[in-house]
Amino acid sequence: MKKLIALAAHKSTIFLVVVSCIFTLLRLPSFFEPYWYGDEGIYEVIGYGLRHGRMLYSGIWDNKPPLLYLIYALVDGNQQGARLLSWIFGLLSIFVFFFLAKRIFKNYKNYQKVTYITTTVFALLFATPFLEGNIANAENFMILPVLIAALFVWKYLEKNKLSFLLLSGLLLGLSFLLKVVAVFDFGAFFLFIFFTQYENLKNIFKQILPLLLFSISFAIPLGATLLFFYFNGIVKIALQSMFFSNIGYVGWGNSFIIPQGFLILKLFFLVLFSFILFLKRIKISSTSIFILLWLAFSLFSAYFSQRPYTHYVLVLLSSASLFVGLCFIVKKFKLLIASAVILIFTFIFITFELYNNIPKSFFTYYVNFGSYITGQKNTQQYFAFFDRVTPRDYALADFINIHKKPADQLFVWGNSGQIYKLTDTLPIGKYIVAYHITSSSQIFNNTKALLEKSRPRFVIILPNQSDIPFSLKGYQPIFIIDNAQIYGKIF
What we know:
Layout: H1 2-27, H2 38-51, H3 67-74, H4 79-104, H5 111-127, H6 138-159, H7 162-176, H8 182-197, H9 204-231, H10 235-242, H11 247-253, H12 261-279, H13 286-302, H14 317-329, H15 334-351, H16 357-373, H17 379-386, H18 390-403, E1 410-413, H19 418-422, H20 434-437, H21 441-454, E2 458-461, E3 475-481, E4 484-489
Helix pairs in contact: 1-4, 1-5, 2-3, 4-5, 4-6, 5-14, 6-7, 6-8, 7-8, 7-9, 8-9, 8-13, 9-10, 12-13, 13-14, 14-15, 16-17
């Protein structure tokens, strides 16, 4: 028996080493990408700003919870540093996913095979640009703490120790500070605990106590964060930035008959599905309940804002990979589950237009990298692969870096926030890109007044942007690069 256990452990070690090496090789080109991705550009500027004296939300602004910006601050806003951290988080996620899959499938005959299959699916999809695994977005970082939280929930089910729930709640609370959609992972695990613990109404308090602890631990990171902002006098600004400023963003795609009508409809189906699972919980294994609940809430999470951005699919990756494993272990409803897998993946594939990512993910992305490192492509050609305006942004940054003095300020009218990071400068105010500045008349007027007061030495006006709505009196055009204009202050 000991020899069998040792052999299984040996196979698992070899498997994890091989998968980790493949994951690393597939992620390797991401370390050499230029500064090109708009969202990362904003994170980079904020991370740089936090390291150089700006206060989040009041001194430098974006509309997400704070933990992602702190990760970027750790690397001073440097993209390669953020990508390195994303790779580390991804590698650790593979290990945690492997052990989670092994635990939840262990009561089934072919659990080792299923564990290998699901882990391989998870690792390959997470490694490539197919789901934007190469980008250091919030989703790329939140997968790890959510997976560890899931593992602790399962360990609580096995050992009935409240400490596991406490740790799980804290990790989900930290994930929530990366991106608010982590609340749906919390909801899935909350219901799973309730479904597996519920007996009858007579002992309801005893059954609710673990859920109460789970909820309190989930709220602790957010509470500590709000206390920090409270003592710095900006709790109202922080709350508005993290949560309330996104209401319009979520509502835009969810309008159906009434505002948020489509969101309400999706919520109705989520509640209905959860209720059916609750009624059938005695006849369904804990493994099936766990995966199905998590998948349902992850689907809701991915479609929460009803916008087809590829990286939103990453919140589905863990539960969907486990769902694939369910096809191999559940024989009674195998055809039904397999049909559901095909239907769900087809729907996601079409909705998020993933077919556009296939050439880039599995062929041209890596060919482009190979051509660059072998000298078949020059730097400009390599940069242009990611975005045709990327060489322009680098040329603009090069011009500024050559001519600026240490104290000189820069104002960029456009949505390439990464130009600030490429020039090691910060915006004159807390707003980085044009679509932030034009989001309200108050922000616009404040920026106008600040521009007139600070009068930065350089102003860059990017093409494909409306004419700059601010006065450029005292400035003159000094250089044009690919239709982007650089103005310099003359008095």
